[in-house]
Design brief:
Layout: H1 9-14, H2 17-41, H3 55-71, H4 73-93, H5 96-99, H6 104-111, H7 115-132, H8 144-157, E1 163-164, E2 169-170, H9 191-204, H10 208-234, H11 237-249, H12 251-256, H13 263-282, H14 286-290, H15 297-302, H16 307-321, H17 330-345, H18 348-370, H19 372-383, H20 396-402, H21 408-421, H22 428-451, H23 462-483, H24 486-506, H25 508-512, H26 521-529, E3 536-540, E4 555-559, E5 563-564, E6 567-568, H27 572-581, E7 587-592, H28 601-610, E8 612-615, E9 624-629, H29 634-638
Parallel strand pairs: 3-4, 3-7
Antiparallel strand pairs: 1-2, 5-6, 7-9, 8-9
Helix pairs in contact: 2-3, 2-24, 3-21, 4-23, 7-10, 7-11, 8-9, 9-10, 10-11, 10-13, 11-23, 13-16, 13-23, 17-18, 17-22, 18-19, 20-21, 20-22, 21-23, 22-23
Length: 639
């Protein structure tokens, strides 16, 4: 029996052939223009969404999308029902009883027969090539040094004190005694990842390749897990395969899995956290059913959840704290999802769970007043510097979450339209899965745009991007597949593929030769090394001494320190005094271009006027500002 939104003249007029075709092709043309402009102009998929300048475009496309959903409601419902029917057999294979039984992996492989086995294996090979190719052929960049130095200290001394390459000893023996355990001496954030890097050093030695090996392996594991998890949430192998292909080509995810950072471990870990938490919340305990005659009925009535999955989720959430606090975003997601389930299903177990969550929140809030030392310390360690209501407006996170593969305006249209499309899903299990992911991406976007008190960075939402991509692909798969014919979809698919490959090709140098936005410390060290002098004074903001370690006997390093709370910790006056102190020695001043704001303006101006520029802007593309100040001759001073 055909299901309709409403009757009446408006519905008949919109559903008329001419009007429906005009609306359909207007929406399709809008998508073509947006994606095509990226290919033609070579724009970055991740260009910042400054001042929401695309808002009118988003509104127009959103309205067009809603009208198309309104017109083609029956086709959309039929397509979703077909998707659900095809996945019924798979659901039995994913039941808790099957998951925790022997031979689960073997059955899963046997079930994935034919073209999907080939596609999954091909994607794993592709991801391995992308993540491992020339993995050690470019220098360490940015925050990699923090992990490399700490992992080396852990490897050599068993502590999380960083290693000094110039002194060839732990900083615990040099300048990190007493209470001076700051980030430049002692680093424990992402300790689990640091331990993996130290283990890699034990096997392969210390190098760029061995430092990044755990990240690249995590990338391949991420792809393998993603197929299983994304298929579970979408009920579709095709949607999962398309999503994974997009994730493999995702420029920022490539960077995550090719650099020595803890986010590479968090990404596959968070996939499992989301999967286990949803299975645990929506499933029911087999153990409680078996023990219903031996335990009070209150447990089977009010606390009937699949505890095996919840236990695994809890273990992984605890592990994620040792990587980065951003994984704790799952907490408010579970709370909001519990509210949704309590209202929509009215099941006693969700109502009781919601009450427990409220009690926990009240207890925590009261605890901050009664035991401020304990609770405030816990909050500071886990969320310190992350929460400040509406202190920022980091709209760049819209680009990070929804800017790929359709570009931000189109991606937001699919996400916003998907909220209404979700209501057309008649299968409650599939609807529950999609709503859970929808809550996840919306809570993440809201928190990091309006609540999080930190500068915007893709790393902080990288663990959620796979679910944002899945939602975009899922809603596009349902909506476009219901509205457009096969020929039109092929054209759109070819255009989208061309855009993805163009973006990937444009970043080949960035990925496999040298990161264009980061400096090259080895070039600066080579310039210093080539100068014929037994003693060289180097002024640097946190010298990347890994590449200068063979100069240990020649260098005396003066740290320019940095910039904190609006104050330069190394002042212009100190700089002049040190120049005078070492005026008979060759003096070098260097910093990475992206860290230029850490160097006092007066120092930069002085060097521009009086120093000899060796590398940097206007000289070369090393992204390193390197100046040389010649020593004064003693006889000139005496005269």
């Amino acid at each position: 029996m055909k299901r309709n939104f409403a009757g009446g003249k408006i519905t008949d007029w919109l559903d008329s052939g001419v009007v429906a075709q005009i609306l359909k092709y207007a929406f399709l043309l809008s998508i073509f223009v947006n994606i095509g402009s990226v290919i033609y102009e070579g724009n970055d998929y991740f260009k910042a969404l400054r001042d929401l300048k695309y808002l009118p475009y988003i509104v127009v496309n959103f309205v067009l999308g809603l009208i198309l959903i309104f017109i083609h409601k029956q086709k959309i419902q039929d397509r979703i029902d077909h998707l659900v029917m095809r996945s019924k057999v798979e659901e039995s294979e994913l039941s808790p009883e099957r998951t925790f039984s022997k031979g689960f992996i073997r059955r899963m492989i046997e079930k994935e027969r034919g073209i999907f086995v080939f596609l999954v294996l091909a994607l794993l090979v592709l991801s391995s090539g992308i993540y491992f190719f020339r993995l050690g052929r470019f220098e360490f960049v940015n925050d990699e040094y923090i992990v490399v130095d700490t992992a080396t200290g852990l490897y050599k001394t068993g502590t999380f004190y960083k290693w000094s390459w110039l002194e060839n000893k732990s900083r615990a023996e040099i300048d990190c005694t007493g209470e001076s355990k700051d980030i430049y001496c002692y680093y424990t954030k992402g300790s689990f990842h640091t331990a993996l890097v130290a283990m890699s050093y034990r096997v392969f030695g210390v190098s760029e390749w061995s430092s990044r090996f755990p990240s690249a392996i995590s990338g391949v594991i991420f792809i393998a897990i993603a197929y299983y998890v994304l298929r579970y949430f979408s009920n579709s192998k095709i949607v999962s395969i398309i999503s994974i292909f997009i994730l493999i080509l995702h420029q920022h995810l490539i960077e995550i899995f090719r650099l020595t950072r803890m986010y590479s471990i968090l990404a596959p870990l968070f996939l499992l956290i989301v999967y286990f938490s949803h299975r645990g919340l929506t499933g029911k305990s087999r153990w409680l059913r078996k023990m219903r005659n031996k335990i009070p009925k209150i447990f089977s009535r009010y606390f009937d959840f699949e505890y095996r999955y919840l236990f695994l989720a809890g273990m992984l959430i605890s592990a994620s704290i040792f990587l980065h606090p951003v994984g704790l975003i799952i907490g408010p997601v579970i709370l909001i999802y519990t509210v949704y389930q309590a209202i929509s299903t009215k099941e006693k177990r969700f109502i009781s769970l919601l009450m427990l969550e409220i009690v926990f929140i009240v207890f925590f809030v009261v605890g901050t007043k009664v035991f401020p030392g304990l609770f405030t310390g816990l909050m500071e360690r886990s969320l310190g510097g992350w929460v400040s209501l509406f202190a920022r407006r980091n709209y760049d996170y819209l680009v990070d979450l929804f800017g790929y593969p359709f570009t931000t305006p189109v991606g937001l249209v699919f996400i916003l339209g998907g909220f209404f499309l979700t209501r057309l899903i008649s299968d409650k299990k599939l609807q529950s899965k999609i709503v859970y992911l929808f809550i996840l991406v919306v809570v993440t976007a809201t928190f990091f745009i309006f609540i999080g008190d930190n500068y915007s960075a893709f790393n902080y939402v990288s663990h959620v991007v796979s679910f944002a991509v899945l939602l975009e692909v899922f809603f596009a798969f349902i909506l476009l597949g219901s509205v457009f014919d096969a020929g039109e979809l092929k054209v759109l698919g070819v255009l989208l593929f061309a855009g993805l490959m163009y973006n990937f090709r444009g970043n080949l140098k960035y990925n496999y030769i040298q990161h264009k936005k980061y400096g090259s410390p080895s070039i600066a060290c080579n310039s210093i090394r080539d100068y014929p002098s037994e003693r060289k004074i180097v002024f640097a903001r946190r010298l990347r001494d890994y590449y200068c370690q063979d100069l240990a006997n020649d260098l005396e390093v003066i740290d320019i320190l940095g910039y904190e709370d609006g104050v330069y910790m190394y002042s212009y006056e100190e700089f002049l005094n040190d120049l005078e102190k070492y005026k008979y020695d060759p003096r070098w001043v260097l910093w990475e271009e992206q860290k230029e704001y850490h160097v006092a303006y007066e120092i930069r101006h002085y060097l521009h006027e009086s120093g000899k520029k060796i590398h940097g802007e206007g000289i070369d593309d090393t992204k390193m500002e390197v100046y040389y100040l010649a020593p004064e001759r003693i006889e000139d001073v005496e005269e």
